[in-house]
Amino acid sequence: MLALQYRLKTKDDFERVEKKGKIFQSESFGLAIYKRHDDNLPRFGFIVSTKISKAASARNKARRSLNEAIRQTASYIKPGFDCIFLSKPIIVKKYTDEIMREVNDSLKKAKLMK
User: Fold this and answer.
1) Rg of the chain over all Cα atoms, to the nearest angstrom
2) What terms describe the molecular function in GO for this protein (predicted)?
3) What is the pTM of this model?
4) How many domains in the chain?
């Protein structure tokens, strides 16, 4: 699980990123990014709705895969950003290593890697 300091917690945090953030699309998810006015650690949130799959186990697997990808790369991401991963239905058909590769590519495309 992602450490508490790296998580978006409140509804206001999520709404701010969704409304004011810039969105990058990949095959499995959209990545919404918002630059905060501080240099604290980057924070992340994951949205995996029932539109993705009716089965909770499939949604949880997708969320865990995204979570693991961020956990391994969080120390390489620039500080001061809030990010939300908006899952697409195809994510339930992908393996964790494919999702991790896609997360890294998306973060590089968004120029968030140090």
Assistant:
1) 13
2) 3'-tRNA processing endoribonuclease activity; ribonuclease P activity; tRNA binding
3) 0.93
4) 1
